[in-house]
## 1
Amino acid sequence: MANPHAYNPFLARMVTQTDGRPCHTDCRPIPPQSEKRRLRLHTAQSVCCSHSHPLGVIRKYAQSIGIRVRLRLCGGAAGVSSDLMSEVARPDLNGSGSPESVHDPRPAPPEPGPPSVIPAVYRFVVNVTYLPVLASGMHLEVHGREHVPVAGTPLVVAANHVSSLDPFLVARALPHGRFMQFMAKKELFVPLIGDVIRAGGSFPVDRSGNDLGAVRTSLRILKAGGTLGIFPQGTRGGSELHGGAALIAAKGRAPLLPAGISRDGKRWIVRFGEPISPRGGIKSVTAELGVALSALATPVGRAY
């Protein structure tokens, strides 16, 4: 084992008195250091004179002045790595004092885009889901298309929920160029069916809690000028409207378009009302939306 009291030339150079003389008879004199370096290293003199290795003092003193050194064991005895000063990590210039807070020059990862819509798949799904309506001898009537803003602008379509055909009927009722992307319950995203739903631009939502991921996806759709479809009732036949539609419309700076769905004899009816501004409190906007949906869900006469 190495003698802990053996002469260490590196420590002899590191530990000197302020006038450049060695602090111990075993140390070899070296030329006076710069005043700043002498002041930093002078603290270890008393330890060196007691024939102990000043690792702890050097580390503690270095930390007190805001630098970090790398210490290691050499040959079974405590020692200081020869590249001590090259491994000094000085505080960053922003005053935080933490080497980890240095600005990372690497660019931030790009923000994910909204779910894509494959128009051919979208139209295919809308047409296929309309076949049961035709097979039952029914047809779709649309009222209020003039209230739908032009395509390319963000829009939140909020409809009442009465059947499993509702999202497809509203999508079919929208003017050409509007591809509505629905929040669909995550239970629908099973193999094959889920792939088709995703290809149509819709995305899953966990209705058991606050799904922040679905909210972020909704906002990305609106930011891209898309059309978001929401059922404020949450489930079919729900008696209470939730404030999620008003909240998303406010954050996405998009108008709310109420859409009432009803059935009268051989007719499925979709009625669009005037857009509702998202400005104002969430409760007041939700209440206004509820009044509009109640009126629009009442069947009216034939249109076209």
## 2
Amino acid sequence: MPRKYLIIFLIPFLTGCFETELNFEDQFEPVVEAYIYVDKAVDKIKLSSMISFGSDSSGGEMITDALISLEKDLSVWFLDHNNSVPGSYYLTDSPKFSPGDTLKLRVELDDAVLTAITLVPDSPPAVTKSAASMYIPKVYDLREFKNIEMPEAVELSWENPEANYYFLNIQNIESNPMAIRPEVPDGMPAGRGPGDFAFEMISQPTNSNYYIIEPMTLQYYGTHRIIMSSVNEEYVNLYSSLMQDTRELNEPYSNIRNGLGIFTAFNSDTLYLEVIPVY
């Protein structure tokens, strides 16, 4: 899923290591979060600012007045700002992207120009499911649930001779799903907004040729949409940098020139899994 990342500056810790006071100049850093999905609207472009060290600001302020353009070959599209979601930009056009296309992002600010390049990855391979449905007993007592016999896991497999990277997004798409575990209430969890899912699980990038869906990882019965996406090296590098030891001070990977953040493209395919109650 792509995920958001945090940049943490350990100023109190660092300054405590020195007897003399450390002085840092304010540093304004624009942060780009731009994801392009093949065959989907271009509306996952976010722009914010970060002020580090010498400022009292905690950062994360949205940038709403940038001039952002997307290029492919000789075509150029200019993005509009979404006033209802500050810092979010979108295209009114619906350009078509194909595997191998080179995409260029350009962000113009008052005193800086940010650029980035990415390639549209190949379509993901065909996926084989070990089963189309998963049958899980329905019980209403937690003690009884602990003793039920769970079905076998569902294995997703595909050809991957070149060890390309993919990630999977598993979503329960029921509007009012029934919970599998007795302590989980039926229906949509509190705080979920329109378009959200009762259950969603995103895997880490993998260059394997299979993925296992364990029944104990699921929370609700019903239809589950499984979106498998091809990813580029920059997304793998970003994910790896986010998973680094928290004691390290390396900032997350960025492929934005003259700024921070990520610009990358995904190519996806969809399959479904039914999780059925057994009474």
